[in-house]
Write a structure and sequence with these properties.
The structure is a single chain. This protein has 5 helices and 9 strands; from the N terminus they run βαββαβββαββααβ. With 244 residues, the chain is of the alpha+beta class. Strands 1, 2, 3, 4, 5, 6, 7, 8 and 9 form a 9-stranded mixed β-sheet that branches. A hairpin with an 8-residue loop joins strand 2 and strand 3. The longest helix has 13 residues. The chain is globular and about 60 Å long. The two termini are 17 Å apart. Keywords: Isomerase, tRNA processing. It catalyses: uridine(38/39/40) in tRNA = pseudouridine(38/39/40) in tRNA. This is tRNA pseudouridine synthase A.
């Protein structure tokens, strides 16, 4: 039987979600916990691959077992896992439902702190030393993203993407006190794409480039045309959508 597991994690302690040689990852810790409690080797497939230091408020993965799962499995997992990972629920799904390939959309949020804040240093870009940002210009640039579907300029160089085509459904900035929040939804994201977009948007907001320059950057289809990637700690995966 195939099961989906919904969970969240603080990515500060991990070298990303996906298992990597000689590095601690969320997937490794999750599989170790499942395998220990179920007393059989368990392999999971996640809805995506978050990079080192990136967080997830809502993440899914699937795994398979022939066992009937204990109704207290969620509690047992949360007791076994570190304080950085929290399991919300586990539920049976059709045998062909795939956590990664059947996701219809993903939503990320990115946070920028406009003041020095020791309590958000691991969950936002500490931007207080730099130029003020014009959120109106940044939202003007957001509208340009909807005109395109090839985001090669925001893709990590030498990545193994079969295509750089993505459909963006939502992109907007809002100010929450002394913090900026960027929300972006799409059918799929390229590796490093959100952080590269944020870095470029900050160049717009600081006046380094204009919103219209974003068109040239996208049409160049060249990573070096875009801005530097924003720091990982400000990025959160907040939703993954499925048709169930």
């Amino acid at each position: 039987m195939r099961y989906f597991i919904e969970f969240s994690y603080n990515g500060s302690a991990y070298f990303g979600y996906q298992i990597q040689p000689k590095q601690i990852s969320v997937q490794e810790e999750l599989e170790k916990a499942l395998s220990t409690i179920l007393r059989e080797p368990i392999k999971t497939t996640g809805a995506g691959r978050t990079d080192t230091g990136v967080h997830a408020k809502k993440m899914f993965a699937h795994f398979e077992t022939e066992q009937t799962l204990d109704e207290n499995l969620v509690h047992k997992l949360n007791s076994f896992l570190s304080e950085n990972i929290a399991v919300k629920r586990i539920f049976e799904v059709p045998a062909d439902l795939h956590a990664r390939f059947d996701a219809t959309y993903r939503t990320y949020e990115y946070y920028i702190s406009l003041e020095k804040n020791p309590f958000s240093k691991d969950s936002s870009w500490q931007y207080w030393r730099q130029k003020p940002l014009n959120i109106d210009l940044m939202n003007e640039a957001c509208k340009i993203l909807f005109e395109y579907d090839d985001f090669t300029s925001f893709a990590k160089l030498h990545a193994d993407n079969k295509t750089n085509i993505c459909k963006i459904y939502k992109a907007e900035w809002e100010q929450l006190g002394n913090q900026l929040k960027f929300t972006i939804s799409a059918d799929r994201f390229l590796r490093n794409m959100v952080r590269a977009i944020v870095g470029t948007m900050v160049e717009v907001g600081s006046g380094k480039i204009t919103p219209n320059d974003l068109r040239r950057i996208i049409e160049d289809k060249f990573r070096n045309s875009a801005g530097v990637s924003a720091p990982a700690q400000g990025l959160f995966l907040v939703d993954v959508g499925y048709e169930f």
